[in-house]
Design a protein that fits this description.
The protein has strands at residues 3-20, 32-49, 51-52, 58-71, 74-77, 85-89, 92-104, 107-108, 114-126, 133-138, 141-149, 156-167, 172-183, 186-197. The chain is mostly beta strands. The model has no long low-confidence stretch (mean pLDDT 90).
Length: 199
Amino acid sequence: ARGYLSAAVRYTDLRHDTRRSIAGIEGLQDPLRAKYSNDAISARVEHAFSFTRGKGVVIQPLLPVVDYARTSATRFNEGQGVAALAGRGGSLESIQVGAGLQLFKTFEGNNGERITPRARVVWQKELGDTQARYSTGFAAAPDLVFGSNSQTVGEQVLSWNLGVTSRASERLSVMVDYVGERRDGQLQNGVQLGLGYRF
């Protein structure tokens, strides 16, 4: 009744399919396609205090909220064409630590259904890697190796969630959520739909 502690660990298999070309260099304009894969391990730990206010509004300060993710090193090879690239990217490690707040309230319907709107906002700071680095070379000239860096992601992470759960019965529920994340000028938005059934 005073709060909760939630933890999860996940393994993800990542597969990539890229198409690209090099413009402005004679003989390298032909488009190329490459496939490569790696994997990731991620974990999340979240602790919250819980307070019920008047009219059934539940307020939950979130402290701490910790997200960890690590991807394996990536190797890629585009074949033996003139402009084909072969390279390697190092592993990446992300550690986000922060706090937040979530609110929700449950409304009882006339026919036993329960509708719960909710809102959530979390601020975190990135303590791990903010940029991927690659060592790359042309397959036709393996001694000509050059480095390249990915876009840098911001260290300040603000994420939010607005949603509603409709529980038609004790076993069946439907969820709709709008989620977003902002990192130093980089913005992501999404919609999540869910169907839950309790056995």
